[in-house]
């Protein structure tokens, strides 16, 4: 039996129970496991010559901390998912497990570096961009990556604040993060050296924070020119000043019979996957244009009813404190999505939403 055949023989309802039982610390990631499971189910198996192996051995193995035997699938971690689907599963005689348990074990390994292609790509981005860089200090890497992203934003009409221009509350938060992660165990360091180390660490977190925000802004720049969108890049630049910024991207993996927007709606209704915040921006993309023409001949590019339901569900989920903040929407069409839907949800806290005082931009 191949890994693909195993996945086709089980339902996620059965598998998620085994994920919680075998890996209790994964109970808050079940929504991501659902996406990972459906993604692999839709993916076509493809053999890769450079992969680790053509088979996967499933056996019982003790945890590294010696806490007991557990199911172990090897090699799975780090292999191309297309190839992993082709692997023949070689099950050791001592393994007494159901198909759902075997699937849970394999999914734990295949998702080790990320549940989706985007997550895996983000995880290894810094290593790929800085391969062979001998000056690999985190602060240096962060600064150089950030400068490239800042340049793209400014070239498109946006602004990026310097450290001095950040609101006091934002700088205070960065200070708190730095203090939690920086320690001076070397008693030989004098006050000047300690201050220098703290400053470098602070700037590292500053760039890390702004890179995260820049990634989102740059990803939606092409959509801002669409006539059905009202947000400008100068407004998105206000995200840099927010005390909180949380960014989640979800792509549907719906079969041909399932509406992709409803797929995502049901996913986020069942699992906690969204950031909690006062205000939000929702970027929603599909693979095709959707519009209607009124009697006067005016063409409107709007959301489908299913997409409107999805947006409403997201708005309810992120408003944890019932503050009834502002939710802004960016609509896009990405042909490669086909019938699938992609959403990026940004949650942020601010005294004012990014679209306030438009006339002052």
Give an overview in words:
With 361 residues, this protein is α/β, with parallel strands linked by helices. It has helices at residues 3-8, 12-22, 30-42, 81-86, 99-110, 117-129, 138-155, 168-181, 191-224, 233-236, 260-270, 305-318, and strands at 55-62, 69-74, 88-91, 244-251, 279-286, 291-293, 299-301, 327-333, 341-349. The strands form 3 sheets. Strands 4-9-5-8 form a 4-stranded mixed β-sheet, with helices on both faces. A hairpin with a 6-residue loop joins strand 1 (55-62) and strand 2.
SSE blueprint and pairings:
Elements: H1 3-8, H2 12-22, H3 30-42, E1 55-62, E2 69-74, H4 81-86, E3 88-91, H5 99-110, H6 117-129, H7 138-155, H8 168-181, H9 191-224, H10 233-236, E4 244-251, H11 260-270, E5 279-286, E6 291-293, E7 299-301, H12 305-318, E8 327-333, E9 341-349
Parallel strand pairs: 1-3, 5-8
Antiparallel strand pairs: 1-2, 4-9, 5-9, 6-7
Characteristic key phrases:
9 strands; alpha/beta; four-stranded mixed beta sheet
Structural class: alpha/beta
Report the biggest beta sheet as strand number plus sense, adding barrel if it closes. 4 strands, mixed
Q: What is the alpha-carbon Rg in Å? A: 23 Å
Indicate the overall shape: globular
